[in-house]
Fold:
Amino acid sequence: MMQGVPQPAFYIFKCQQSAPPGMPKPSCVSQNDPESQQLFQHLAQQLMMKGIIGTVQPIQTGCLNRCQQGPVMLVEPGHTMYVGLTKEKIDRIIDEHIIGGNVVEEYVIPDEFWGEPIPPSQMAR
Ligand code: FES
Structure:
């Protein structure tokens, strides 16, 4: 087999959406919550410190539609949605899921907010 550039083992999509000041709408990055503003940088720094930043690619993204459970991030492959994030939780997710291979179930979105997907083939007009 040809030895080319390896694809990433994981993409981590971190929601970076912030509501404008004074807006009651929940968001993953909040003016009133300094830690929420530091989570992406923390994620990237930890991946760098552990030497896995190339094979694990952190991506800043817009709203992932689970704002009530924020801050959230989605790990692919696996379609694992982590909610209510803090720096400590991110550290555990990196060690146990990304490096260790075991999803950190306590931090995964509850099933009632993450039901089975509807196949686009069923919905397409
Ligand atoms: S603002 Fe992050 S999921 Fe909507």
Summary: The chain is about 25% helix and 15% strand.
